UniProtKB/TrEMBL annotation:
UniProt-recorded name of the protein: histidine kinase
Regions annotated as coiled coil: none
Source species: Bacillus salacetis
Molecular function terms, GO-annotated: ATP binding; phosphorelay sensor kinase activity
Domain HAMP: 180-232
Protein's UniProt keywords contain Transmembrane: yes
Length: 453
């Protein structure tokens, strides 16, 4: 299986190869065209120069001078009369040259004419210029051997090929190095996700900056941290549930065995049965809360919002819990404006208030006051604040108070019957309404919890 670094390098290399090839072809073609055009223009200019000399001074000496001059260069000149009869040449005229002389058009423009340009197949490049001084007229033919030009272009091809290969090798090395540098973070992230899939959440990814790779790395790191917290919370949750169930079940089992003994009085048996009943009720309450949380997690519970008047709803809840507060000699005060409305699910809102009041009842001493206050802190929102004069919560515990099965002072909570699920349910239900929960507490002075919906 190819690594992503190899794939990236291959893709980049292929793209650059295509681009480099197109550029090389264009540059190579342009240079060859330019060079051949220079050759054509050079011999054409020499032919025109000889034409001008002949038109100025057409003599035997001039003809011999032109032929002698070109014999010392890499070009050849052939001068003919108007009937294409050769009257002077710098070198012997070959058959191929004769054919070009005989085959060119009769009409030749003043600036001259290129009559052979195939430098790849033919032995000569050739031009013709017509001269006419009034008395004499004819043609000046210039020939240049194509072998030096082919040799030059072969060298040019070789250099282009070597430059292309060398450039490709250098680019390949650079791309492979860069692709490894760029894909190393991706490989680290891949390995990290494999660790996560195997249940190993102790993943540490380096900081990669603020780009897309950095954001992806931070997201994976956050996922790993969240999964680790979830795993720890799950283990703690299972341990807490097991512990919460084990204690009342142990009581039930023990007192059932005692109640079944022969010879104990009815008074004692009834006392044991009441303990069994209380512990059974605690188990049922715990299971109901767990079931409620499970429904919230699975989104199987429904929130049916409607406009409700809060004061009658709060008064109704106060009547339900009033006897429990009276038995503990606690005072429940309700402070509510006459007309305050909220857009909420009445059943779920009642459940929220009941849980808050139940907590206040459990974690407060006798002869204390618990108050429920309704207010409108800002337009479109309603605040419900439940304040007690109970034991209070240490400041370092406040951040954990909404965790499931988290309890402050476990021994006291156990005596008062708390399971550590009430506030979790409150938080989940309030957030399901799109609201928020805030808590303030001082140890030994009481707790104030405000929900905002």
């Amino acid at each position: 299986m190819k690594k992503i670094s190899t794939k990236l390098a291959i893709y980049f290399l292929a793209a650059v190869l295509i681009m480099e090839s197109l550029l090389m072809i264009y540059l190579h073609s342009s240079m060859i065209d330019t060079r051949t055009q220079e050759e054509f223009q050079s011999i054409l200019s020499r032919g025109n120069s000889h034409r001008d000399v002949l038109e100025d001074s057409y003599t035997e000496g001039t003809l011999n001078h032109i032929a002698h001059m070109e014999s010392k260069t890499d070009t050849e000149v052939v001068i003919t009369d108007e009937n294409k009869k050769i009257i002077a040449s710098s070198k012997d005229v070959s058959d191929g040259m004769r054919n070009l002389i005989n085959d060119h058009p009769q009409e030749v423009p003043r600036e001259g004419l290129l009559i052979e340009s195939d430098w790849e197949k033919m032995n000569y490049l050739a031009t013709v210029t017509e001269y006419n001084n009034g008395a004499e007229e004819g043609y000046v033919y210039m020939f240049k051997n194509t072998k030096p030009l082919r040799s030059l272009i072969q060298k040019l091809n070789y250099h282009f090929l070597m430059a292309g290969i060398l450039g490709l090798l250098i680019i390949a090395v650079i791309y492979f190095l860069l692709s490894r540098i760029l894909t190393r973070p991706l490989i680290n992230m891949k390995e990290a996700t494999e660790q996560l899939s195997n249940g190993d959440f102790l993943v540490k990814l380096p900081e990669l900056g603020k780009d897309e790779l950095g954001e992806l790395s931070n997201s994976i790191q956050k996922l790993a941290n969240d999964l680790e917290n979830i795993q720890n919370d799950r283990l703690e949750f299972l341990a807490s549930v097991s512990h919460e169930l084990r204690t009342p079940l142990t009581y039930i089992q023990g007192y059932t065995a005692v109640a079944l003994r022969e010879g104990i009085s009815d008074e004692k048996r009834n006392e044991y049965l009441r303990i069994i009943q209380d512990e059974s009720g605690r188990i049922v309450h715990l299971i109901e809360n767990l079931f409620e949380l499970a429904k919230i997690d699975q989104n199987t519970f429904t929130i049916t919002k409607q406009e409700i008047e809060l004061c009658p709803l709060i008064q109704s809840v106060a009547k339900k819990v009033g006897p429990a507060f009276d038995r503990k000699n606690m005072t429940l005060q309700i402070s509510c404006p006459k007309t305050v409305y909220a857009f909420a699910d009445p059943l779920r809102l009642e459940q929220i208030i009941l849980n808050l009041l139940d907590n206040a009842l459990k974690y407060s001493e006798e002869n204390t006051i618990t108050s429920v206050m309704i207010r409108s802190p800002e337009a479109g929102k309603v605040g419900i604040t439940v304040t007690d004069q109970g034991y209070g919560i240490p400041e370092n515990e406040l951040q954990h108070i909404f965790k499931r099965l988290y309890r402050v002072e476990k021994s006291r909570s156990r005596v008062s019957g708390g399971s550590g699920l009430g506030l979790s349910i409150v938080k989940e239900l309030v957030e399901a309404h799109g609201g928020s929960v805030a808590i303030e507490s001082k140890e030994g002075k009481g707790t104030s919890i405000e929900i905002l919906i």
